[in-house]
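2024-03-11 09:14:02 INFO worker-7 job=invfold-0412 stage=load source=structure_tokens
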């Protein structure tokens, strides 16, 4: 039997509906108002989605007291895409961005990264089968629903995905404090696969050995490293800048 989960937050549910996701039921706070709530109600009516108006206690219980903003929806789990299929169907004439996450386990960081990836036109996000944050309600909400707009692929090992990218002629770069090169000093005006590691240990050493170009961001303060979602955003936007 296919498992059903819940997503919460106005933008996340709106994005789910607009991207064609199959929602089971939408629960709305009886007294809630506002522009986004009005937009959600309109979409629910337009798409004839089963809904009901409930007290806040019901929403708190379903969302485990998450910041639901007055709306919760039941939805089937997100389907994972095939990385091989995506690479086979890519336009070799375009400059694409792929994002490989090596051990990012915090769901809010994961959600924030997905949101930034969608905003910067990333073609796909690749995660490992183990040691990765799940796609759960908190991830979906933090992504503002962007999880429904970008393919997410699971692979056995991130290193395997790096080799696959290189086989397709895509330059692989990885963020590490051990690099002697700043991200601003390398040519990113081409198809790029960016590898980001966990905040605790960074990129797995065996993966770091096989990437084409280790890079880093300049650090001016006393703190040793940036939050992984912030660092990822800074690097993605430098790639976007260079690709024009």
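2024-03-11 09:14:09 INFO worker-7 stage=emit residues=244
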């Amino acid at each position: 039997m296919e498992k059903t989960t819940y997503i919460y937050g106005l933008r996340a549910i709106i994005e789910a509906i607009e991207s064609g996701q199959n929602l089971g039921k939408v629960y709305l706070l009886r007294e809630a108002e506002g522009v986004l709530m009005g937009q959600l109600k309109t979409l629910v009516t337009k798409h004839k989605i089963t809904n009901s108006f409930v007290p806040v206690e019901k929403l708190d219980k379903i969302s485990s007291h998450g910041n639901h903003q007055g709306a919760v929806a039941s939805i089937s789990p997100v389907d994972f895409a095939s990385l091989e299929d995506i690479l086979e169907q890519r336009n070799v004439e375009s400059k694409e961005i792929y994002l490989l996450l090596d051990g990012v386990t915090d769901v809010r960081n994961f959600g924030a990264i997905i949101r930034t990836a969608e905003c910067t036109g990333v073609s796909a996000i690749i995660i490992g089968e183990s040691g990765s944050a799940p796609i759960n309600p908190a991830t979906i909400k933090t992504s503002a629903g962007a999880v429904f707009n970008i393919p997410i692929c699971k692979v056995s090992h991130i290193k395997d995905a790096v080799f696959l990218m290189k086989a397709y002629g895509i330059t692989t770069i990885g963020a590490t404090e051990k690099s002697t090169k700043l991200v601003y000093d390398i040519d990113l005006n081409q198809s790029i696969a960016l590898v980001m590691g966990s905040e605790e240990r960074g990129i797995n050493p065996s993966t770091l050995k096989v990437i084409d170009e280790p890079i880093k961001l300049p650090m001016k303060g006393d703190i040793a490293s940036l939050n992984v979602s912030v660092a990822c955003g800074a690097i993605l936007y430098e790639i976007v800048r260079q690709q024009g």
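2024-03-11 09:14:09 INFO worker-7 stage=report msg="Residues 83-243 form a domain with the Alpha/beta knot fold (CATH 3.40.1280.10)."
2024-03-11 09:14:10 INFO worker-7 job finished
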